[in-house]
């Protein structure tokens, strides 16, 4: 899950914030643990200007989303008397102490169901979020869940989506120019010219999902046994693949060992900036969507999630700031992922760079045919895993 973007490291800024916060026990403090480079320092500076001078901001970055999920799990554990927690050093577990509980944490939608089911997070009150009604319905649906973490249109709101992206097809323009065609949709991955020239994600939901999409079905189809053609289609795709990887799928493309790769838009947009030979396309038949959200850590104390305590005023202010129409545009311009708040805007009102970047902001038609990968029941998930194992061992 190595989707990284934006321009500046937050490490130096985070240290400066911590130092400036010394001696400010009585001041309002906003603690945020976020994915590294997912929010530019310029945005934090603009937010600081809106606050009272006494407010203290503590933004602390993590390299990967799974680190943040594990941190939520650590915060849920009862506090221990381990003296090592006095030392908040790199590589230590100092962040996991209850005194370091953040107000908000970045979480990917992939982990949302588990975070709710394990009681790691608290719901948000959408009536306190000024732009909630402007959030596209597909993103509202994503974060409305029941207490088990399952999608529920009547469920509570468990996160505030602040950026999103897609799974796309990347290719080497110089390698495919003599083929007489360029990749346009998922079906092109099965062309014989790409035998042993294809990089795929090491993810059953992504690979089986795009194959289902090629056959005219949903990424989230639960009855795989009803599709006898699915196995043969997957076996044919497996024969095309040179490798499967979630974090090294672009290196062979850059080296020319593969000509086409399936990957996440944040990775590929960053690579395209560095190498003009890399091009990409969002499949018009639809693709997988992903989103990153602000969530509220629950901490170790039991809380009734039906009537949870309200979020801090600064936490609500930060979410409203990220969803502000002007800031949503700026965050999208500076990064490799866009705000969902752009989707209800007239594209002609957006800056030209956003209007024309079909990878960063796909067409409305492609988005309408795309889906978030939804949680599966354990039984259905095992059918996916069993099929995946069979294909990979073939």
Helix content: 25-40%
State the secondary-structure class. alpha/beta
The tally of structural domains comes to 2
Overall pLDDT confidence: 89
The proportion of residues in beta strands is 15-25%
Q: Any idea what the CATH superfamily of the largest domain is called?
A: Periplasmic binding protein-like II
Total DSSP E strands = 13
The SSE order reads HEHEHEHEHEEEHEHHEHEHEEHHHHEH
Terminal Cα span:
25 Å
Any idea of the CATH topology of the largest domain? D-Maltodextrin-Binding Protein, domain 2
- Supply the CATH architecture of the largest domain: 3-Layer(aba) Sandwich
Major sheet summary line: 11 strands, mixed
Low-confidence stretches: 1-24, 82-93
How many H/I helical runs? Answer: 15
* Name of the level-1 CATH class of the largest domain: Alpha Beta
Overall geometry comes to globular
Q: What is the CA-based Rg, rounded?
A: 22 Å
List the helices and strands and how they pair.
Blueprint: H1 11-20, E1 29-35, H2 41-49, E2 56-62, H3 65-76, E3 104-108, H4 112-117, E4 121-122, H5 137-143, E5 144-145, E6 156-157, E7 160-172, H6 173-176, E8 198-200, H7 204-214, H8 228-240, E9 241-244, H9 251-255, E10 260-264, H10 265-274, E11 278-281, E12 288-297, H11 313-323, H12 325-334, H13 352-356, H14 364-368, E13 371-372, H15 378-392
Parallel strand pairs: 1-2, 1-3, 8-9, 8-10, 12-13
Antiparallel strand pairs: 3-12, 4-12, 5-6, 7-10, 7-11, 7-12
Describe the structure.
The chain is of the alpha/beta class. It starts with 10 loop residues before the first helix and ends with a helix. The N terminus is likely disordered.
